[in-house]
Write a structure and sequence with these properties.
heterotrimer, A mainly alpha, B alpha+beta, C mainly alpha, B: alpha+beta, Rossmann fold, 6-stranded mixed β-sheet, C: 2 domains, two-stranded antiparallel ribbon
Chain lengths: 280, 339, 263
């Protein structure tokens, strides 16, 4: 179909990028004189404890951010669902305008040991020195990055799920209450199960984004362990071009994990929407 | 249970939809709520059920004020036009849903669901997904799901509009049968005049958020309270004339009139028009439509109004022909002209 | 009612969580000194504002380049979105479900990976380190969102009006532009807005593909944040968010206009 032509172009670019990453990670970079295809870079990565640590950290960040965003975002959505004033809708979309870097600034301003919350604690007499305020930001648990992701992604989930949840709630949820279900029962037995496809889609999008994103773990992270995208970028910009395949192996891992997760998730969502009779 | 509504005012998005509405439905009664699209019938049902808030008025069910009760505690169940069966549950789980909300245990509620399914001849469909059922079957499931909730008041919001003609008649019979068996107060909202007249103990005619008339089907059809109601039912025309000293006289028609002197229109139902030898009223045949079981003839009355009269056999007239008939004047209805 | 108070509580908490950090940032951007443990700044200063407009990274120029880039991405992304949505929603062809599924594909590949991978291709077609290359990469990020937005609107509008116009004598293109497109306007505006914001906020992709030559506001934000100068990073953040908010408000206003017209 001719109409699909521009999109197919875009898909080609995506495909080209993936092939490029994979090829380079397998050692095939003709421009640098490397023509032997080998898995050695991947093997090196998988046996490198630093790399594995980075991988785990990135998975943790992505997992925590996605799960918490999904749950809290759904909660916010539920509160707005049958009584959304226009003000609420505008409010929800404001964090979409704010880039992740600025979200990092927010976290620093509020949660750092000399941030606003610490100062409030001081005013109430709970602490007397910045060091007594818990170190939330620059920790190996990447709490600061997770908080920043939550700030951005909870509104995203709420916005993403709102259309579907509204539709379900205003028809089927209303019918359930009419038949004797309390608002809580109606939400958990009807509205929530039938909104799951959208919630799951949002979850996946956030997970993959947080897993592969660079800005937040770089701004709010620590020297060790580095998040995987940060580690990968450092290797990519290393002056020795022969270490390029090693860097690409890291990007390749990010790619493979993302693709694997997407596939697993789509299968799970398919099964869910099949059971729900396709209300989406 | 008896439903009493008085002085009900409902606004949607700052616009008044129901104005000073009064309605009573006796215990066990079948009431039809009839009116054109947009007059507020669905709004009324949703307000009774508590889905929409009311700005003023009282709402009492079985002697108890229900206006402060939340939706799920009112006992007023609506069967919606779009049925709203839950796609994430099987048919029997849908029917058993109200029982589940009351805490009835699994075996009992599935047994109740099975019994209800049997009443509507759907006992074999319990395990199926809702999407596998036809429109008529889904409507039946929606109906017994509402009954499973043991409502004090059953509200049906134009439930047959989406169905084919034949299916509609089957469904009407089924609703009446279930009403006889369960004996709960029922309000059926419809814009189909025939349906309202055929099914109900009482008919309430609604225009613009207000009840124009409430009475038995015969009363509402035979003695409509105003022109709008009369025109809504159709099948009638008007004969202009004068009332002097308690007698109405018009071209070729005169009858006693218990109204003050003045100019009036006499309501002429098609059933009151007779054609025999002694007819003095001159009518013009304006149109003839063959409709299978009957032939509809459009007649022009003196005064310029038209009415459609059904004949079981074509009367052998031609369009434009002048014929003579007479009007049966028992229990006449007069509407003043010019007000 | 408990439900209403819950909803109100959530709304208030959400509002505070969203607006409080922004308010604090605003204060920081005009701060002279704000040492621990004061709750308000010790003194205020316009140093950062001066730096903003006359400093090395001049705001007007950054705004211009960021806006032009973002506008291009918005327009192209919406264009692709309209076409793709039209083909997957209104036409029935083999592989339609596959096409629909593929629409989300670019979203499932992290932008960092894509940017790094496409470099060699961009080098080959001569787009590396150019604005065109940046536009292309931003486009890939934005397109899935544009398609999603346009798909919903396209499906809702359908072909009814277009067919009617054609039956009345308009050619297919004319029918589309005079009848269907006006109905698609809310979606088009949403898609333009989304595409703009997405491109405007991109950092890593601009960094890799632009090679340092293409400077956007989002790009210079990071070094300022890393510098530790809170006032300066705040003022640039405020500049960014206010400009984004301005563009967003314009689109929202236009959206409301189209909705009013159609009523």
């Amino acid at each position: 179909m001719l109409l699909l032509f521009p999109f197919i172009l875009i898909l080609t670019l995506v495909a080209a990028s993936c092939c490029s990453v994979l090829a380079q990670s397998l050692g095939y970079i003709p421009a640098f004189g490397l023509t032997k295809v080998t898995l050695s870079y991947y093997v090196d990565a998988m046996t490198n404890p630093d790399f594995l640590r980075s991988l785990v950290v990135s998975l943790q960040i992505a997992g925590c951010s996605a799960v918490l965003s999904a749950i809290l975002g759904t909660l916010v959505c539920a509160a707005f669902v049958r009584r959304s004033g226009n003000a609420a809708l505008y409010l929800i979309r404001v964090p979409i305008l704010v880039p992740h870097a600025v979200a990092a600034v927010f976290m620093i301003t509020l949660f750092s040991q000399t941030g606003l919350l610490a100062r409030i604690a001081y005013t109430f007499g709970w602490i007397s020195d910045p060091c007594q305020f818990p170190q939330l930001l620059y920790t190996s648990g990447y709490g600061g990055a997770i908080l920043a992701y939550l700030w951005k992604e909870i509104p995203f989930v709420a916005y993403f799920v709102l259309a579907l949840m509204s539709g379900v709630s205003k028809t089927l949820g209303e019918a359930a209450e009419n038949l004797g279900a309390s608002p809580l029962q109606s939400f958990f037995r009807i509205t929530l199960p039938l909104s799951m496809p959208a919630i799951c889609k949002a979850f996946l999008i956030i997970f993959i984004f947080a897993f592969g994103s660079y800005e937040l773990p770089m701004l709010l992270g620590v020297t060790y362990p580095k998040a995987l995208p940060v580690q990968a970028y450092l290797a990519y910009t290393a002056p020795d071009l022969r270490s390029r395949p090693a860097a690409m192996a890291m990007y390749g891992m990010i790619l493979l994990v993302s693709v694997l997760l997407s596939a697993l998730f789509s299968a799970a969502v398919q099964r869910l929407s099949h059971r729900a009779g396709g209300a989406a | 249970m008896q439903l009493i509504i008085s002085g009900l005012k409902v606004e949607l998005q700052k616009k008044p939809v129901l104005r000073d509405l009064n309605l009573t439905a006796e215990d066990g009664q079948f009431l039809s709520l009839l009116g054109p699209s947009g007059c507020g019938k669905s709004t009324l049902l949703k307000t009774i059920a508590g889905i929409l808030p009311m700005q003023a008025g009282t709402l009492s069910l079985g002697g108890q004020d229900i206006s402060q009760l939340p939706v799920h505690r009112r006992g007023t169940v609506i069967v919606f036009q779009d049925m709203r069966l839950f796609p994430n549950m099987s048919v029997e789980e849908n029917v058993a849903f109200p029982l589940k909300m009351r805490g009835v245990d699994r075996r009992k509620r599935l047994a109740s669901a099975a019994e209800l399914l049997e009443r509507v001849q759907l006992e074999a469909y319990g395990q199926r997904r809702v999407s596998e059922l036809s429109g008529g079957q889904q409507q039946r499931v929606a109906l017994i799901r509402a009954l499973a909730a043991k409502p004090s008041l059953l509200l049906l919001d134009e439930p047959f509009t989406a169905l084919d003609r034949n299916l509609r008649e089957d469904m009407r019979a089924m609703v009446l049968k279930l009403h006889r068996e369960f004996q709960m107060t029922t309000i059926l909202v419809t814009h189909d005049q025939k349906e309202a007249l055929a099914m109900a103990d009482r008919v309430a005619v609604m225009f613009d958020g207000h009840i124009a008339q409430c009475g038995t089907p015969r009363e509402v059809y035979g003695r409509p309270a105003d022109r709008r109601t009369a025109n809504y039912f159709g099948g009638c025309g008007y004969l202009p004339g004068n009332v002097v000293g308690g007698v109405f006289s018009s071209t070729a028609v005169s009858c006693p009139a218990a109204v003050p002197d003045g100019r009036y229109d006499l309501l002429v139902h098609s059933s009151a028009l007779h054609f025999g030898e002694s007819g003095l009223l001159s009518l013009r045949v304006a149109g003839i439509q063959f409709q299978g079981a009957e032939t509809m003839v459009q007649l022009e009355l003196p005064g310029g109004t038209y009415l459609m009269k059904p004949f079981s056999e074509a009367p052998g007239w031609s369009i434009g022909q002048r014929i003579f008939g007479s009007v049966d004047c028992t229990d006449p209805v007069f509407f003043p002209i010019g007000k | 009612m408990r439900q209403r108070t819950f909803a109100r509580l959530v709304l208030v908490v959400t509002a505070v969580c969203i607006l409080l950090p922004m308010a604090v940032l605003l204060v920081w951007s005009v701060t002279g000194r704000w040492p621990w443990p004061l709750l308000t700044p010790e003194n205020y200063s316009l140093r950062t504002i001066r730096e903003l407009f006359h400093g090395s990274a001049s705001l007007p120029r950054l705004l211009l380049s960021s806006c032009m880039l973002a506008s291009m991405v918005a327009v192209l992304g919406t264009f692709v979105g309209i076409l793709t949505a039209r083909s997957t929603e209104l036409y029935n062809f083999r592989g339609r479900e596959l096409a629909r599924g593929c629409a989300l594909l670019p979203m499932l590949i992290p932008g960092t990976v894509f940017a790094v991978g496409i470099q060699i291709t961009l080098l080959r077609i001569g787009f590396a380190d150019t604005a065109a290359g940046v536009v292309l990469v931003h486009l890939v990020v934005a397109v899935p969102y544009c398609i999603m937005i346009m798909a919903d609107v396209t499906r809702a509008v359908g072909t009814a009006y277009e067919e009617e116009a054609m039956v009345l004598g308009a050619g297919p293109l004319r029918a589309f532009f005079s009848v269907t497109l006006p109905h698609l306007m809310p979606g088009v505006l949403s898609s333009l807005s989304m595409g703009f914001i997405l491109s405007y906020s991109q950092y890593f992709t601009t960094l890799i593909v632009g090679g340092g030559r293409i400077k956007t506001l989002a790009l210079v934000l990071i070094p300022y944040i890393q510098s530790g100068d809170r006032a300066l990073s705040s003022v640039y953040s405020v500049a960014f968010v206010s400009s984004a908010l301005l563009v967003f408000s314009v689109f929202e206003f236009l959206l409301r206009q189209t909705r009013l017209d159609s009523r």
